Amino acid sequence: MAGACGRTYRVDPTIDPAPCNALTQTVTGLLVPGVEIEADPGLTVTAPAPGDCPQTWTVGIDGSWAQGPWTGVGVHDLNGADRVYETITEVAPMVIPRSGVWEVNYAVRGGVLLPANLVASEYVVAALFENGSLIVGEEVMVVGLSRGQATGAAMQVQGTGAQAFLRFFNAGDQVTLRAYRIGQLATAQVISNGDGRTRIMAHWIGPTGDTPA
What whole-number distance in Å separates Cα of residue 157 and Cα of residue 170? Predict the structure, then answer.
């Protein structure tokens, strides 16, 4: 800084040493780093109040969930060939509302019926499909029944199979429940009523960029 009589004065600022002081002195001058915060969908950022020291930025997660329950009462007969999946149309497709990692779980109540004196086996297997493609590795054997001798009364067994897993989905992905039978001589069904429901659901737990293990 130039003063009277051509004299030059240098003023060195005093930097407050407080830990919350972002001001630093560099070779080119004083510097206050700018802060830019970007939040992915599902994340919220709350700025500090004016005058706060230290300034605390709060990052929160806005969770989301989706489900496709079979809330009515009914039976879906499995009539297809062995190991050929059929869509359980009574369970509404689950549309993923937000991209990210989701915790998914589903439960399927199945039933099989063997007529009297019939030597046969019957099984029910279920799985979820993403946009029409099988989610490999998350299939579940729901129920099975086998008779090895041609004697005895009719036999019926019901059971509920369930599965839970983590998976990344994009917003708009569609998840459907499907099942197949193994055995063509008996009756195989997917069932839902007040004694046991068949349904799928998912809960968003991580933003895009998170990786399920």
Answer: 38
Closest by Cα among 164, 86, 176 to 125: 86
Say which residue the tokens 């919220």 belong to.
Answer: 44
Q: Which of 123, 125, 197, 208 is nearest to 168 (CA)?
A: 208
- Dump pLDDT digits (tens) for 53-91: 888 888 777 778 888 888 888 999 999 999 999 999 999
The distance between the two most distant Cα atoms of the chain, rounded to a whole number of Å, is: 122
The answer to whether residue 163 scores a pLDDT higher than 60 is yes
- From the list 184, 179, 87, the residue with the least C-alpha distance to 142 is 179
Residue indicated by tokens 């897993």: 165
Structure tokens at 2: 């130039």
d(CA 145, CA 155): 8
Q: Quick one: CA torsion of 200, 203, 208, 210, rounded to 10 degrees? A: -110
pTM for the whole thing? 0.74
CB 94 within 8 A of CB 106: no
Length of the chain: 213
Q: Return all residues near 163 (Cβ < 8 A) that are at least 6 apart.
A: 105, 106, 138, 139, 140
Beta strand segments in 49-195, E:
58-61, 65-69, 74-77, 86-87, 94-95, 100-114, 120-130, 133-134, 140-147, 155-169, 174-182, 187-192
